[in-house]
Structures are given as structure tokens and as C-alpha cells.
Structure prediction request, 594 residues.
Amino acid sequence: MHPRIEDYALIGDEQTAALVGLDGSVDWLCLPRFDSAACFAKLLGDEDNGHWRIAPKDADRCTRRAYRPGTLVLDTEWETAEGSVRVTDLMPQRHRAPDLVRVVEGLGGRVTVRSTLRLRFDYGSVVPWMRRSDGHRVAVAGPDSAWLRSEPEVHTWGEAFGTHSEFTVEEGEKVALVLTWHPSHEPRPPLVDPYEALEHSVADWRAWAARCRYDGPHRDAVVRSLITLKALTYAPTGGIVAAATTSLPEELGGVRNWDYRYCWLRDSTLTLGALLSCGYQEEAEAWRNWLVRAVAGDPADLQIMYGLAGERRLPELELPWLSGFAGSRPVRIGNEAVKQLQLDVYGEVMDTLSLARRAGLPAKPHIWSMQSVLLEFLRSSWRQPDEGLWEVRGGRRHFVHSKVMVWVAADRAVRALESHSALSGDLDGWRALRDEVHREVCEKGYDADRNTFTQYYGSRELDAALLLIPRVGFLPPDDPRVVGTIDAVRDELGHSGFVRRYSVEESPVDGQPGGEGVFLACSFWLADALHMTGRTKEARELFERLVGVANDVGLLSEEYDPVAGMQLGNFPQAFSHIGLVNTALALSGDERAG
Prediction:
């Protein structure tokens, strides 16, 4: 049976990440960065596309697994007829080279353990040469090299284009296996002590988690979400990737398979709010600084997403040799949506920088100049149709959410001038822009007969992004139009107690065949909107359902199939975990929740 998305757990070193299955197999790992080519791609293909499994010989799925509390260190245990064994997986924060450390420990009896390593560089397409060197097994192909060693050394041999090890452990005995990557033209990097790395990783993660100042309901879920966001952060730049994976399907067997290993501007305000509210100012400042660097340049060239260091070109192509997760083709790398016009990102950028200013993040003189230029661009361009925040591929429309976020951009600029006398700008002109956008949205984006805002001007379709109208301050929560919109979205986009982002079947804007699951971030938005309109009991019930969707180690993907009871889409998804944190903050009465 093919694994399910929720069968996986995440480990990482804040520059890349690996997915470890319930069977003890690492089925996804890109080296040396999140967006590099995978050396383990079984997740999107089969065993011959690369994986590394360590488990008791002839055993299947583990008996239990869990992160060590407050860490990204994963313990996986098996109970067998011969005894019990634990495999501890981690990627220590790197000094120079990325290491994947796997420590096997006997817990009872005498257990035979088998390690099967199949390295396949370039997304499972390249079988490397293997050789022995100083007790290591060394793999080399093109620009990539990886070194495998064990402490103590165990019996290892090559067979069927794989590297195999077999050994026994009794109670208290340990064997550590370490895989280290480096560019093939460079010498082997210094060796990491696997046992020291484990000790330091546990201590470092626990010290970081202890900084969380949220102390309300479901604190463990909030801390796990924050650890996941930290794990999805590219430490050298502060950028946060949307997910660690590409092409995990929004519908099993479908074509809605996209690469999420990049940084989206749409996430920026909610991310910054979550980090600041929970006490992570250093991470919030790094994210703000990444954002400012990424968007620098001509405002007409502002993109919806960027690479980990702010790269702008993310060409999309398909990998035909990979069969896809559960047969879901095509497998894509890169993301063509980078070329889309999404006017809402201007509002996201302005809102993020406004929040940073209010939170007291250190000011940078050039930031306000950049914001002023963005506003002037919007003044001349806001009437254009765009593709909207969902990156639809069915043509441009006058999306209501996009126009609302244009209003947000103007509103935050006006508020900044009103509050900070040292700033300069066209206050009257920006007020006029704000008022004009507001008036048009209320006239063209609102269906008075149904008492709801719509997905785009003149349509009858709805969009879950409309739930953000009260959150961003476009209208107050008690406005009848807001209440009507929340009710309409819940009634028409609701599915089994959750929310779809829009109607895929009925909307002409989507441009893709097939369907998808409920969207977890949108379901968190509904909980927020219900809470803001005084329906806190319903909001809490929805929040409880959403927390219950997380897998056994607390991770959420992008979407969920409530009928089949399975997660869908790229995993783990930053947007979903940001939603969990912000909704928890809101329901706990924290007014700083984004």
C-alpha cells in the first residue's frame, strides 16, 4: 500500500529538510537546499528513485514514534519478536556540510537491524558511482558527493545499486549512521560526532521552543507549529518556504501538483504576526529583512514568490521519469505562477511593513521610500484584472480580495503618515485612492440580493479569502455585509465541517481539471471570522476539528480530504501552521494575533 502524506515526519537543519516515513524510510531529501535536486525521491516515485530505510530486519511499520518534546528530533520505535529498538533521526544545524544522522539503539532483547541506502541524485535520475575510502562508502555523480559511515563500523556491502548494512543491537547498545553531502570537487568536510550532534540538537531546539510565550489552550500544537515554521526557514537569509516538498497532489491521481519550495509574499503578514506574538522577534526581523531585499526594484516587477535568497527566476518543468505520489502526475519543479500579476501582494507587503513598524522592529530608512514607490505604482495600476491569490490559471479577473488588499496598501500608508510626522508622502492622494477602492469594491464586488461579497466583480462564485475582510479592517466585523459573507462562505464552500477555498467544479477561473480537498488555512480563517463576529463557541469547535487533522506528530499539509480522512497537498505546509498559531492566539484572547 502506498504511504499516505500524513505517514511522514519532518527533520531538518534550517537549510533543507527530509521526510521520514512510518516504516523508517527517508523518502525525500533535497541537498544542499530546500530547492535543490532531491537525492531521495521515493516520495514521488519508487524505491529506485532514492531512499534510505533503517528498520528491524523483516519489520514493516513502526510501533510508535514521536518528536522529543520541544525539538525536531524524531524517535521511531519497533517492538519485534526478538526485542525492541529505537531509531533517532535528526539533521544537526550545519557548520559547513549537511549531515543526516540516524542513531540506532537497542531497548530490549537482541534485534537484527537492516539499513538500505539508495542514493539517486537529480530527483532520482542519476545513479552515482560508489567506492570505499577510510571506512566510508562514497557516492559521486556530477556535482554531488555523499559519504556514509557508521560508528562503530558495521558490516556493509553493495548490492542491486544500493548500499546495505546489517547488524544486531542489544539493550543499551548504539550504532550511529551518518550521511554527509558536499560538492564533489571539494574535499570531504570535517566529520560530525553523531552523539554530540544529537545532544546539542535536543538542547538547542528545547532552548528555542522555551522562548514561546503563548500559554493558552493547545500549547503543544502551537509550539509544534512554530518549530515547523522554524524548520521551514532558510537560515542564511531568513526566507520561509511554503513547504518542504513539490508535487504532493491536491487530489490523488490528479494534476494539481505544484512546487512549494519557495517563499510567498502572501504569507508575510500572517507569518510576521505569529512570530511576533509568540516572542520570536529575531526570526520576525529576519523574515522582514528577507522580504525587503526580495521586493527591491521596480514595483512593476514585484513577484508573488521568490527563491530562498530572493531569486526571481523559478522556471517550471516536468520530470517524466517520476510516477508521482500515488500516481499523481505530472511531477513539477519550479513554479510558472511566479510570472502572474497578483495585486494583493502589494497589500501584503505594505501590511507586513506596517506591522513591523508598530511592533518596534528596527527601522531602515530605505523601507519607507520603497513603500512610497509601491503606492505610486498601485495608484496607476490597481484597476487591472489579475490572477488572484490562488494563482488560478484560467485567466485574469477583477478579484475582490485583490482589490481589498489594494485598499489595505493605501490604508496602511495613510495610517503611517498620520502617526509618524517624520514620514513624508501624498497623504491626500493616498486617502483618495483608499476611498475610491473601497467604494468600487462595495459597488462591484458585493451581491446585495445574496448579502455577500463575491469572488470577482459580477460573479456569483464565492472565495474563502473574503473571510479576511474584517481581519484586515476593510469593514468592521459587525457590518451586515461581513456577517452575510461569512455565512455564505460557510454554507456554500463548507464541506464536512471545513472550508474549500472556492468552488473548483463551478468556477470558470480555475483553469485545471479535477477537484481538491478542503483548504486548511481557509478553515482557520473561518474560525477567526466566527470569533470576530461573536460566534466564539462555533470558532472553538472548528479549531478543535482542525487541530485533530494533524498527523500523529502534529504536522499539517495544505489540504484535507474529510471523506477519506487523509491529508493532501504539499507537506508540511507553512500556511496551515501559521493559521493554527494565529487562531490559537485569537481564541486565547491575544489581541496581537497578526
Summary: The two ends are 41 Å apart (CA to CA). Residues 379 and 433 are 7 Å apart (CA to CA).
